[in-house]
Amino acid sequence: MGATAVFADGSTAYCSRLAGTDNAVWSSVQGVAPNPNLPETTTAGPSLGDNCIGADIGRTAIDVNGNAIICTDYQWQLNTGQTPEHKWADDQRAWSDCIQTRTTEECRAELNSGG
Asked: How many domains does the chain have?
C-alpha cells in the first residue's frame, strides 16, 4: 500500500486499504478507500440532557454538536471540569464515614436532617 499509478483519465491512483477490510484497491482516495459494500451504521452517542446510568458516572463524551459532556448525577451535562456526582454512592460514603465515629442514631439524625 502507498504505491501510486495513473488512472486512464490521467488522475492519480493510490493503492489504498479498502475500508472495513485488509484488502488493497486502486482508489482516488489516499489511505483508506470507501467501501460501498459496508452497511451504513451510525452509532448515536449521548447528548446533552440525556439520562445516564450509574456505571457511566464520570464518563466523558463529545455530543453531536461537539460539546464536551460528562455523566454526572445520572444526566449528561456540559463538562466544565466539575467532579462527577453520584448521589446514592455519595450518601453511602457519608453514612460509612459517619458510623466510624458516631452511633447509628446520631448518624441518622445528622444525615437525614441535611447535616
From this structure: 3
